[in-house]
Amino acid sequence: MQQLQWKTAFVTGGSRGIGRGIVLKLADSGVRRIAINYLSNDAAAEETARKLKERGAEAVLVRGDIGKPADIERMFATVGSAFGGSLDIFVHSARPNPGPWLAAPMDATPEGLHQAFDTAAVAMTLACQHCVPLMPNGGRIVGITYAPGGRTGSWQVWLAMGGGKAAMESTIRYFAVALAKKGITVNAVSPNTIDDSVLNALPDPVYKGIKAWNESGWTPFGRMGTPADIGNAVALLCAEEASFITGQTIHVDGGASLMNSDLPLDIQGAG
Question: Residue 2 above 80 pLDDT?
Answer without folding.
Answer: no
